[in-house]
Amino acid sequence: MNNKLSMRKDWALIESLIDANSKVLDIGCGDGGLMAQLEKNIQTKTSGIEVSAHLAQKAIAQGFNVVQGNAEKDLNQYSNKSFDYVILSQTLQAMFRPKEMLLELLRIGGKAIVSFPNFGHWTIRLQLLLLGKMPITKGLPYAWYETPNIHFFTIKDFQNLCQESNIIIEKGLALTRGGKQIEISSGLSSANLFTNEAIFLLSYKNFEPIKIKSKQKSFAGNSVVAS
Amino acid sequence: MSQNFNILENSELGCFIAEFINTNCKLDSGFQLSNFKIAYKTFGTLNNDKNNVILICHALTGDQYVTGINPLTKKNGWWSRMVGPNKPIDTNKYFVICSNVLGGCSGTTGPKEINKISQEIYGAEFPSITIKDIVKIQNFLIESLSIKKLFAVVGGSMGAMQALQWTIDFPEKIHNIIHIAGALKHSAQNIAFHEVGRQAIMNDVNWNKGSYIKKNIIPERGLAVARMIAHITYLSDNSMHRKFGRKLQSRDIISFGFDADFQVESYLRHQGRSFVDRFDANSYLYLTRAMDYFDAEKSFSNSIEFPNIANNHINYLVISFTSDWLFPTSENKEVVKKLNYFHRNVSFTEIETDKGHDSFLLEEPGLDLTIKGFLKNNFNKINHHE
Q: How far, rounded to the nearest angstrom, does the alpha carbon of residue A87 sit from its chain's CA centroid?
């Protein structure tokens, strides 16, 4: 199993974004592969959610805290900032409401790690341009009528959404088709052409609480009670 | 706890009886229970560290004979497919204790036993009891066995209520709980079904305001009807359809009468009849009432609201079944949601089956896999850390 673990390049990248000993929620944790890796390598305290009963049972049977459930329905049971990191790997494009999902991730987690297949990859652009058909690639292998992926978006689209939603992109990592790893910076548009899979570390913009300075001491004395 | 107890083996019941004399045990109702006994069985061996103890809490009509042959019925114990050597709850590894609940009728103090003070059978003079009382009595047993900490408390249905109550009342004494097909509180629908069962018993002329044993009679018709109703709630529409459909019983055409024409009728009648031989009608009244009174919504929330060393170590496993309409997934999830909200170690799975509430007693590979792995890994954890 450990051999299988080391093969997941995206998991290694996710791990690199997480501080040791932190509290992590893995949404769509499967049978607990990534959880095992994080607990072993960086001693996180990890919980998981998995929609498949079979996979959830396998994960629980390996000793992980896993709750069978649906990411779009069951995240509301977690209180604000329950975790240091919340991971949503390769599923944002399958969500009914991706924007709400992102905000929900950052409500329950201090930081969110989101990975997705990039629809802006040049081969995908070319397929649509030349063939005039919905692209089918290794990362997006389904025909349009049976794909679980209902929202297609590119790295640029994602960056724009984050900006609109007051979400800070703390770090962006990209995996190319050849397995090469590059860092995504907001100005670099070529990343959008060559990235197969993107992984982002996100946080929510913290606004300073507005301080109202009042000259009148309205709460002093019995004035409130008296009126 | 003072040492005013003794433990004897009872050859007739094929189990141990722990008898407590002049003990200070105040029940929820305010009643002072000073003399009581607990019938229990153990399986496997207590290890040197005394950290391999699993307490199994039985359901409404269960008993201490969780596995092996039940000496009274000569049949396999009620959970022998789950508990035993090399079974998911492996008695080669764990020391399993199962005791008959307070108010039960297999040897523990209950309405059919003799009241030490009046020297008469309790009957309806037995005090009203709650799940909290049942757990309190179990704790007396655990203390008398000099066990400081339970590795796990496991139970389905009324047993799940007890497991939850353990986390509330004695969190420092448990490592893990497995809560199967239970709820934070007994629902209105479930109370309603219980009430129909109780009415059937109390309206049987033989019930005699609870003192029927003296007269050597039993309210068998009422008790049988109560069991028939309850049995329906343990199954599901699909499983009944699969098992019986509209098939006729030992006949080719309908009788145009009220005999058991249909197989499902014959089956229920049999369930009712055979229940009367093994269960006490008053126990049924008291224990259904204890379930009705169960409402841990507040006490459970309070117990986990603030992180404290007493209970934030507990690992909770909650399991429900898709076709269980008595303790549906939604109610089991209430437990999970509360635990998640307060950042507790919780796992949850809903097992896909059409066998209804009874699924927890039946062949369900997902159930076995989950329980076995959960226990195994958490057992390894405490043995590496201690």
A: 5
